[in-house]
Amino acid sequence: MGHTDKITVNDKGLSIAHDSYETWIEWAEIFRIHYSRFESELYEDRGLVFDYENGEFVEISDTAEGWDALLDNLERYLTMEDSTWRRKMADCPNETVITIYVNDRMFQPDCVNTLMIGDAPPGDSTFFFNGDSVLLEQVKESFAIALGEDVPEDHWDFLHYFRSREWFLIHLCPRSVNEVPEADRQRVRQQNIDRLAQQIADHRPSSIVCLHEDSKPWVLSALQLSGVQVDRCVSVESSADNDKDSFVNELAEIVRQIAL
């Protein structure tokens, strides 16, 4: 990973000034961000890799001037789904690359027909649109049961298929609630009703699928606040954590009904 001279951050993006040229990255263009660590007795190579959707990427070394300011501003300008991303960078094993950010808008259809609403991201460094979460595997299985052999097996291919069917996933809570005491989770959900209502208003779906029975009252409140009239608003009653088979089969039936 080549070393850079200076990083400058503003509300539009960041610039990386090298010896003879400057690279500009807009926040909206970033598809994924990875952290990599490769160290030996001969060298140390740590830093971030910024991916574009077309496969191009930009590498930034942690030796660059402005590195700390860049990290301090990531959460200001990007939605970092995993609140522990800094800790995961610090604990990253040698000779490893970890993903700390995925721009889910890259998988957002131009017109959202069905809005799937989860309670919160898992908080274990996996994420639906990163192609590595348990929920993604369960949703893919549900689609395969409902729609048959045309559903791709590959996770990334399925995410593009999911988009082509005009489905999209968002969460009531933008951050994981795993570390939030159970007694405080209702308060956190309540605090996010206005944000969810705005997202529903922005997408204006025909159908809403609530993935967690626990969050259903807040989803319904957000839907009412949004002013959007939907054809259906349904929820999966079984828990994906406690009864995976029932969750998958219930969701498959919902997918089948929406596809009719």
Please count the helical segments. Answer: 8
What is the beta-strand fraction? Answer: 15-25%
Q: Which value, in Å, is the CA radius of gyration? A: 20 Å
**Can you write the helix and strand succession as a string?**
EEEEEEHHEEHHEHHEHEH
Q: Tally of extended strands?
A: 11
Description of the structure:
With 260 residues, the chain is α/β, with parallel strands linked by helices. The protein has two domains: 6-102, PH-domain like (Roll), CATH 2.30.29; 106-259, Uracil-DNA Glycosylase, subunit E, CATH 3.40.470.10. Helices cover 34% and strands 23% of the residues. It contains eight helices and eleven strands. It has helices at residues 67-77, 85-90, 134-147, 155-164, 182-191, 193-203, 216-226, 244-259, and strands spanning 6-9, 13-17, 22-26, 32-39, 44-51, 57-61, 96-102, 114-118, 167-171, 207-210, 232-235. The strands form three sheets. A four-stranded antiparallel β-sheet has the order 6-5-4-7. A four-stranded parallel β-sheet has the order 9-8-10-11. A three-stranded antiparallel β-sheet has the order 1-2-3, covered by helices on one side. Strand 4 (32-39) and strand 5 form a beta hairpin. The relative contact order is 0.11. The mean pLDDT is 90.
What secondary-structure arrangement, pairings included, does this model have?
Blueprint: E1 6-9, E2 13-17, E3 22-26, E4 32-39, E5 44-51, E6 57-61, H1 67-77, H2 85-90, E7 96-102, E8 114-118, H3 134-147, H4 155-164, E9 167-171, H5 182-191, H6 193-203, E10 207-210, H7 216-226, E11 232-235, H8 244-259
Parallel strand pairs: 8-9, 8-10, 10-11
Antiparallel strand pairs: 1-2, 2-3, 4-5, 4-7, 5-6
Helix pairs in contact: 3-8, 6-7
